[in-house]
Amino acid sequence: MRGTYRAIRLERFAPTFRAATEIVDLPLTVPGPGEIAVRNHWCGVNGIFDSQIARNAVDYVAIKPPILTGVEAAGVVTSVGPGVSDFRVGDAVATVRFTGGYREGNVGPASQFAAIPAATPEWLALASTGVSALVALEQIGQVQDGETVAISAAAGGLGHLLVQLAKLRGCRVVAVCGGPAKAAFVRSLGADRVIDYKAESVAEVLAAEFPNQLDVAIDTVSGAIFDAFLDNIAPHGRLVVGGAAQDLEGRPEIVTGPRIVHKLYYKSASVRGFMNGLLTPHWPAAREKLFALHAAGRLAVTFDAMRFEGLAAVHDAIDRLLSGQSMGKVIVNLAPDRA
Question: What CATH number should be reported for the domain holding residue 142?
């Protein structure tokens, strides 16, 4: 790599990630003891999180500009510091730590990187979004073989992996998405019932076809979909909250209604928060399982049809994800000029 690299840095708080950030040139430092240097090839996009940090609306992360951005990236080790034995020059690695994503190069503790079979989009998606899906489903949702599992945003980067992982457990999958193209895509993944929320009422379908039958429901949308999942949670069911896409402004909707205790108590059901950053002990085993499933051809990764090349394209990729038009994982090629 050259003596400098480019990165997207949060310079100010603003209504959008594009307005809050600048592309800056930074010196490529030599790795110190216990560190490695990496040339990033790909990064994954997390548009909702990016929008929230731009607005200083992330309660669990202390943001003080200027600060680098992005969470997940895959690349190749270019040098190693003293005392590093787990990595060698040329190894493919991924990082899923905040500030490690939207940058062409990275120097940091070797402990913040994980070995992957190759520096390709598939392995990055599995090491990041795939881990989130598996940990949410198995550790927080505590899914059991053959249960009924509901998934919102089922055509997205997280959702399309959740659908497949649930089907691998022999579950009956109820998948929620928007539009005929997304519905066809999710159906092709094996979902048993696809609810197109743009054409039918999620609440009405669940009440008619799956009343009190959702053993596990994983929601990243909130709003009416969360309400519909909660209303139809099964006895001992688990509703996993993995996000709230409808709350991008950081101002939760004020809802007047019965407290959810009445919907949980008589079923011994629960609502559980999923914050992947608090579940790091489960990451290595999840990666191992996901990598084996993918290598065996049992778990596929789908990427959005729109292609984004170069660091400057990150902003367009974020806009694409936030538009609601994407299907599968949204990624950016950070090194389109590599041989």
Answer: 3.40.50.720
Do 239 and 260 lie in one domain? The reply is yes
Q: Are residues 105 and 146 in the same domain?
A: no
Closest among 15, 120, 22 to 76, alpha carbons compared: 120
Please name the residues in contact with 143: beta carbons below 8 A apart, sequence gap of 6 or more. 137, 149, 166, 169, 171, 215, 216
Pair (142, 114) in one structural domain: no
Which tokens sit at 50? 């990016």
Rounded CA-CA distance 86/88 in Å is 7
The whole-number pLDDT of residue 311 equals: 97
Q: Is the dihedral of CA 153, 156, 158, 163 positive or negative?
A: positive
As a whole number of angstroms, the distance between CA 98 and CA 61 comes to 9
**133 and 225 housed in the same domain:** yes
- pLDDT at position 258 is 81
pLDDT at res. 1:
47
Q: Are residues 139 and 264 in the same domain?
A: yes
- 48 vs 221: CA distance, rounded Å: 11
Instruction: Split the chain (339 residues) into runs of 10 and give each run's mean pLDDT.
Output: 85 96 94 96 94 86 91 97 96 95 96 96 97 98 98 97 98 98 98 98 98 97 94 98 76 77 93 94 97 98 96 97 94 85
- Indicate the pairing of strand 148-151 with strand 172-177: parallel
The verdict on residue 24 lying in a domain is yes
Query: What domain range includes position 272?
Result: 129-277
